[in-house]
Amino acid sequence: MSGHSLDRHDDALLAVRAGEGDEDAFEVLVRRHGPVLLRLAEQLLGGPAEAEDAVQEALVSAWRRLPEFRGEAAFGSWMYRIVTNRCLNVLRARRPLTPLEAVAEPAAPEPQASPERAAETGAAVHALRDALGGLSPEQRACWVLREFHDLSYEDIARAVGISPQAVRGRIFRARRALTEAMAAWR
Amino acid sequence: MAVNHGAGEEPEDELLPCGQSLMELWEDPAGPRVPPAGHPEECPHCAAALAELHALEEFVTRSRASEAAAPRRELSVSTVMDIVRMELRPGRTLPLGEPDEDAWIVEAAAAKVFRAAVDALPEVTAGSCRIAPVGAGGRHPAGRGPVRVRIEVVAGMTWTVPRLAEAVRDAVARAAGERLGLEVLAVDVVVMDLVEPAGGNGRTPW
């Protein structure tokens, strides 16, 4: 195939070929979408090991389901949905009950850290990550997709499997909880 | 500001002491709003609530910057592809060679050969490629007999549809004869698109 590279093709064509069993086409999609999906899973799950597992499982699941993928959504949006769904299941299994009260606990600076150290960006970033852990799985998913992936309410609704109105409510509750949790850092 | 912890997780709005809906204020901080009647233009409650949101946005911006600066961890593509390659979707089994032979090829493998042959044409890319036996004719033993190929293609504007269809048919017929020994009765070429080179996303479709 003199110089013919699948890398240059768009997702729709690759997804059709992958759906008919072309693994090389699927590999191009995995390389193209893997990094952003991994970042999403890390943001949702908070840890790299679980995130990698979740994305790998999501991709294998996508491969199995590709024959039924009719291209009604873009491949990227479809993968967002599969990865989000898998991460939500992990989060729900991890914490069957999420008391909202847990959210208000501010992630205080570590005791041994000096105030100067605590004021550093790195510490605040960690505090934000900790505060995210206090959100309910759906709040977290909606907020992360909005703030870190710039998805519209409609796209978030499709990824999470709830109505756009419910997305609006989840994002509001998430912001409300996070502003409280981060109050100590302002 | 008091937080209403409802029983469930139903979205609940909150009203600031000035009567402004916090949900509305935060949803579109810069957007036009209809403040409650008698709402002062310079409202300290709204200003304080917006400052809280902006502080959070500041943390988000810093968090995004620190993520972008962090060494990017790569997904282990080979782990995924090892599993995928063990879960082949072979498709139908198609007859190879003479009617009295017992040689077969799976659809996915034949499609791979046909797509490669078509991809080798200048500015042409194959998409879907389906292969099926032609009818259940009585002339051939069970499952044996010629096949029909349906292949979708995208090509550059330099092609005309008739020339493209002919070139694709030739490429498929040649690959079937020389590389597979598969008897192809007909090749249906579906031209999905003729496109200008280099699309907006920098990807050319061939």
TrEMBL record, chain A:
GO MF, one annotated term: sigma factor activity
GO biological process, one term: DNA-templated transcription initiation
Entry annotated with the keyword Membrane: no
Domain of life: Bacteria
Keywords: DNA-binding, Sigma factor, Transcription, Transcription regulation
UniProt key word Repeat: no
Residue stretches making up the RNA polymerase sigma-70 region domain: 29-95
Entry-linked InterPro entries: RNA_pol_sigma-70-like, RNA_pol_sigma-70_dom, RNA_pol_sigma70_r2, RNA_pol_sigma70_r4_t2, RNA_pol_sigma_r2, RNA_pol_sigma_r3/r4-like, WH-like_DNA-bd_sf
Domain RNA polymerase sigma factor 70 region 4 type, residue spans: 127-178
Record-stated family: Belongs to the sigma-70 factor family. ECF subfamily.
Entry protein name: RNA polymerase sigma-70 factor, ECF subfamily
Organism this protein belongs to: Streptomyces harbinensis
From TrEMBL, chain B:
Superkingdom of the source species: Bacteria
Record-given protein name: Asp23/Gls24 family envelope stress response protein
